[in-house]
């Protein structure tokens, strides 16, 4: 039976029927996996934003070494950024569905993973990324 309110316990089904936890070890390993997936989500978001800004600001730097040999470095960068966006969106939706299991531990592991991932990968250079994205010197 699916819970419609938050509950605490080691028995939870995450995303698919085959990912069920019935012991504290499997529950803990699942929480660690969700924590790492959440941090990885923030890492990919940072890479995607940096790739997008790099391709906007200096298309020639995107061609080497990541896009070496491509005649249209700018279009290749757009395709790569779009693919990265798709992967990141898929991970985000899967994390959302995992949280919808309404298990308190799953919720906390996901939120803490997002927070730690943001702190580790995105909080330090946020001002630099925003300043690169601005096209008008007046703002």
TrEMBL record:
<feature type="transmembrane region" description="Helical">
    <location>
        <begin position="24"/>
        <end position="44"/>
    </location>
</feature>
<keyword id="KW-1133">Transmembrane helix</keyword>
<dbReference type="Pfam" id="PF04145">
    <property type="entry name" value="Ctr"/>
</dbReference>
<protein>
    <recommendedName>
        <fullName>Copper transport protein</fullName>
    </recommendedName>
</protein>
<keyword id="KW-0186">Copper</keyword>
<keyword id="KW-0406">Ion transport</keyword>
<keyword id="KW-0472">Membrane</keyword>
<keyword id="KW-0813">Transport</keyword>
<keyword id="KW-0187">Copper transport</keyword>
<keyword id="KW-0812">Transmembrane</keyword>
<feature type="transmembrane region" description="Helical">
    <location>
        <begin position="79"/>
        <end position="96"/>
    </location>
</feature>
<dbReference type="InterPro" id="IPR007274">
    <property type="entry name" value="Cop_transporter"/>
</dbReference>
<comment type="similarity">
    <text>Belongs to the copper transporter (Ctr) (TC 1.A.56) family. SLC31A subfamily.</text>
</comment>
């Amino acid at each position: 039976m699916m819970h419609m309110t938050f509950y605490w316990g080691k028995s939870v089904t995450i995303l698919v029927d085959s990912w069920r936890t019935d012991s504290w070890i499997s529950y803990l390993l699942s929480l660690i996996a969700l924590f790492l997936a959440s941090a990885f989500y923030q890492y990919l978001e940072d890479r995607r934003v940096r790739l997008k800004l790099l391709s906007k600001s200096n298309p020639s730097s995107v061609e080497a070494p990541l896009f070496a040999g491509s005649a249209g470095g700018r279009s290749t960068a757009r395709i790569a950024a779009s693919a990265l966006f798709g992967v990141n969106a898929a991970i985000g939706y899967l994390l959302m569905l995992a949280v919808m299991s309404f298990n308190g531990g799953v919720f906390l592991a996901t939120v803490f993973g997002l927070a730690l991932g943001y702190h580790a990968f995105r909080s330090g250079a946020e001002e630099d990324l925003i300043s690169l994205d601005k096209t008008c010197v007046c703002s």
